[in-house]
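User: I'll paste a sequence; please echo it back and then give the predicted structure.

Assistant: Echoing your sequence first, then the prediction.
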Amino acid sequence: MAWRRGSRRGPVFEKANGWIRFCECVFYPVTRIVGRRKMLGLEHLQVPGPVLAVGNHISHLDPVYSAVFLRKSGRWPHIMAKASLWKIPVVGPILKATQQIPVERGGGRGQVGLDAAIEALHEGKLVFIYPDGTISRDPEHWPMRPRPGVAALALSVPDLRVVPVAIWGTQEIVPPYAGKFRPWPRKDVIVAAGPPVPLDDLRGMEHDTRVVRDASIRIMTAVRDLLAEIRDEPAPVEFYDPKKAERMAKRAAGS
């Protein structure tokens, strides 16, 4: 793919409130200091109307770099994140003021977050989601098997642009699950967007279990392939499935 860098004030620039501008003042320089930031393919986001951006998740730093990347496109990002973050002092009020989207986990409560995201898309906004729902547990940091929520969003709005976004390098600064903050020596952090995922054939069908599964896999495959491109290495054929891995580990322990 021939990469080109997009302009912050490109074809579309959405004016933001004071809290978004405050976050720009904080996170723009921070993401440059913590890592050597490279942002590619912004033109895929610099379009009017609803956009669903879909990304891989490899570090607790990802939302910061992803938010900066999305805002650099000129759009106002509305990121779906676990609702518990809204209960943290300072963080919670900022998330609310910048109109991010809380998602409850378990017991079917996630539908509230999906409904809020669908409403935002119908209003022509840019929504960002991690389809695997959490930081990847794949030993090589590849995307995991996606959850069906991403398909519910992708198929909810006619002519919705679904844009894959891949990030690489943040796992070296804040390793997932058991890592310490390691900013030095500075590392490259690459965030890239790719061409929209074609879904028109699935939108015209009844959204049954098979269609939802096919849409989810197609979207996550685009993210995985984009990640393989910026990593410059082949991607695995199958997505990592934590439940399957746990079953295999238990089977091996019992043998």
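The mean pLDDT is 90. The first strand starts at residue 35 and ends at 40.
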